[in-house]
Automatic annotation (TrEMBL):
The chain crosses the membrane at residues 7-24, 36-55. The keyword Membrane applies. This is Uncharacterized protein. Keywords: Membrane, Transmembrane, Transmembrane helix. It comes from the Bacteria.
């Protein structure tokens, strides 16, 4: 699933939705602790997914095992 180029597009639009104004305003300004957890966890998940996409694409591009 991570090797498909469509997944990158879906991840991009998911990031737009997650970090967009409507979702950011759901916890409200009164709960800064929950806002911090929401942003930190969603940011971490996106970073892990991007890392996994990079690993999968690197393995498919590099068949002989050389890094260069």
């Amino acid at each position: 699933m991570l090797r498909h180029p469509e997944f990158s597009v879906v991840l991009f639009f998911l990031c737009l939705c997650i970090f967009g104004w409507p979702f950011i305003s759901i916890p409200g300004a009164s709960s800064l602790k929950s806002m911090f957890y929401y942003l930190f966890i969603s940011w971490g998940i996106i970073i892990v997914l991007l890392f996994l996409i990079g690993i999968k694409q690197g393995k498919s591009d590099n068949h002989d095992g050389n890094l260069i």
